[in-house]
Amino acid sequence: MTNSDQTPLPRTAVAYGITDPVASARAELKAALAAIEVKANVPRRVEQASQRGIAKARVFAKKNPVGAVAAVIGVAVTVGGIVWVIARAASR
């Protein structure tokens, strides 16, 4: 059974059945570099996390609109309070 019979491998995986040691080392290096790129690409990870958060917020707002409005008001009051405290401390 070859990989073509299965689902495609992720970029961070090494193909099974490579017998040539040089090809195996190259495949392992390629997979390791891909894994490092996936872990180290912070902007992409932040973007994906924010997209997941936005999707969750939309689902929550659709299921519970009153709770969503209350959450937005709560966040606005909290941010406003923090800004007020910082401005008051800076003015003294």
From TrEMBL:
The lineage of its organism: Bacteria, Bacillati, Actinomycetota, Actinomycetes, Micrococcales. The chain crosses the membrane at residues 66-87. This is DUF3618 domain-containing protein. Keywords: Membrane, Transmembrane, Transmembrane helix. It comes from Microbacterium bovistercoris.
